[in-house]
């Protein structure tokens, strides 16, 4: 993945195995998987954490390596069907959380120019991502402000 705000090259990551069917050893019923996904979401877990828990802990002791192959639906689609999806997409929410932490740091350490730049870059990413999601995943009227992000994070 190429870094947006640096001259460095991106780092290559691993790819998922190219397969179009669920492995034989993971024969969990799709309804059981969906109910477990909703249960984990109600406990406050993010979609990425839910995927890790299904992979590691499984459903009724049987691991689920790929929710989409096992159920035919993406994890976020399952959450949408059951009205359990988070208010903001996970990537946007995590960037807002990072920006709030950086602002708090900058309030105490005004001379930290590196982190000032990091805050500028993070808020730039938030605005770019908000434009991408606006009208589809988030409200058409959404505009990022530090105050709104801080308030949102205080609620949780």
From TrEMBL:
Gene Ontology biological process terms, A to Z: translation
Gene: rps15p
InterPro entries from the UniProt entry: Ribosomal_uS15, Ribosomal_uS15_arc_euk, Ribosomal_uS15_N, uS15_NS1_RNA-bd_sf
Biased amino acid composition, Acidic residues: 21-32
Pfam families given in the database record: Ribosomal_S13_N, Ribosomal_S15
Protein name per the record: Small ribosomal subunit protein uS15
Organism: Halorubrum lipolyticum DSM 21995
Origin: domain of life: Archaea
Chain intervals for the UniProt region annotation (Disordered): 1-33
One annotated GO molecular function: structural constituent of ribosome
HAMAP family to which the protein is assigned, alphabetical: Ribosomal_uS15_A
Domain annotation Small ribosomal subunit protein uS15 N-terminal: ranges: 1-59
GO cellular component, one term: cytosolic small ribosomal subunit
Listed Basic residues bias regions: 1-10
Keyword terms: Ribonucleoprotein, Ribosomal protein
Family named by the database record: Belongs to the universal ribosomal protein uS15 family.
Subunit and interaction comment: Part of the 30S ribosomal subunit.
């Amino acid at each position: 993945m190429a870094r947006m705000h640096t001259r460095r090259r991106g780092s290559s990551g691993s790819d998922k195995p190219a397969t179009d069917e669920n492995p034989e050893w993971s024969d969990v019923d799709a309804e059981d998987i969906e109910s477990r996904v909703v249960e984990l979401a109600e406990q406050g877990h993010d979609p990425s954490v839910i995927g890790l828990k299904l992979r590691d802990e499984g459903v009724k002791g049987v691991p689920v390596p790929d929710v989409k192959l096992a159920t035919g639906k993406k994890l976020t689609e399952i959450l949408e069907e059951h009205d359990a999806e988070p208010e903001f997409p996970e990537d946007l929410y995590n960037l807002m959380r990072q920006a709030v932490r950086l602002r708090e740091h900058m309030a105490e350490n005004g001379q930290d120019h590196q982190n000032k730049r990091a805050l500028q870059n993070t808020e730039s990413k938030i605005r770019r991502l908000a434009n991408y999601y606006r009208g589809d995943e988030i409200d058409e009227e959404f505009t990022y402000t530090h105050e709104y992000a801080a308030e949102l994070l205080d609620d949780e």
